[in-house]
Design a protein that fits this description.
The structure is a single chain. The chain folds into 2 domains: 78 residues, 3-Layer(aba) Sandwich (Glutaredoxin), CATH 3.40.30; 107 residues, Glutathione S-transferase Yfyf (Class Pi), Chain A, domain 2. A hairpin with a 2-residue loop joins strand 3 and strand 4. The protein has a 4-stranded mixed β-sheet, covered by helices on one side. Helix 1 packs parallel to helix 3 and helix 7 crosses helix 8. The protein is 51% helix and 9% strand. It is globular. This is Maleylacetoacetate isomerase. InterPro entries: Glutathione-S-Trfase_C-like, Glutathione-S-Trfase_C_sf, Glutathione_S-Trfase, Glutathione_S-Trfase_N, GST_Zeta, GST_Zeta_C, GST_Zeta_N, Thioredoxin-like_sf.
């Protein structure tokens, strides 16, 4: 069997979602590191794989996929072991809805190309503001849905999306004391091997100075 290839960057929240899901579903993969700061994503070779010049990109089953949520949906549909979504359509929609509040609303405005446009003097304030605004809504939603994790006591797609966003929250200095449920869930997830192995500081391409 051909091993899957994941094109990833250590501090990319989008890449981390896919790393977590691959780990949870016990899918072996080989990481290929794309240094966003060095502009590897714009190289001719990588642009052929991903014309959007973003990470992650996953080569699996003879296909090449981009965009983390499309990848996660493919893994969910083709590898039902360790499901990240329940069978009930309404519950699936509810979980997807909260997950998309991260992947479509909060996280995109912290992409490297957005932060570069905002500028060094404003990017920390920018990131902190939009994460805080987004977390306010998520915290309210979790008051109704959370158990041990975001939706009861089983890990779901929402947990896979939430954990990497906490990396950015800490990086931008968000006051997490305002979000006790999110903080508690993040602590629970941090002890799970699939999440620990996917953490940005556990990646081989993470500089030693940041570990």
């Amino acid at each position: 069997m051909t091993i899957s290839l994941l094109y990833t960057y250590f501090r990319s929240a989008c890449s981390a979602r896919v790393r977590i899901a691959l780990n949870l579903k016990e899918i072996d993969y080989e990481p290929h590191f794309v240094n966003l700061l060095n502009g590897d994503q714009s190289s001719e070779e990588y642009s052929k794989k991903n014309p959007q010049k973003l990470v992650p990109t996953l080569e699996i089953d003879g296909h090449t996929f981009s965009q983390s949520m499309a990848i996660l949906e493919y893994l969910e549909e083709t590898r039902p072991e360790y499901p990240l979504l329940p069978k009930d359509p309404a519950k699936r929609a509810e979980i997807r809805g909260l997950a998309y509040s991260i992947v479509a609303d909060i996280q995109p405005v912290q992409n490297l190309r957005v932060l570069n446009y905002v500028g060094d003097d404003k990017k920390v304030e920018w990131g902190k503001h939009w994460i805080t605004v987004g977390f306010e809504g998520i915290e309210k939603s979790l008051e109704k849905t959370a158990g041990k994790y975001c939706f009861g006591d089983e890990i779901t797609l929402m947990d896979v999306c939430l954990a990497p966003q906490l990396y950015n929250a800490k990086r931008f200095g968000v006051d997490m004391s305002r979000f006790p449920i999110i903080t508690r869930i993040d602590e629970e997830l941090s002890h799970i091997e699939a999440f620990k192995a996917a953490h940005w500081q556990s990646q081989p391409d993470c500089p030693a100075s940041l570990k």
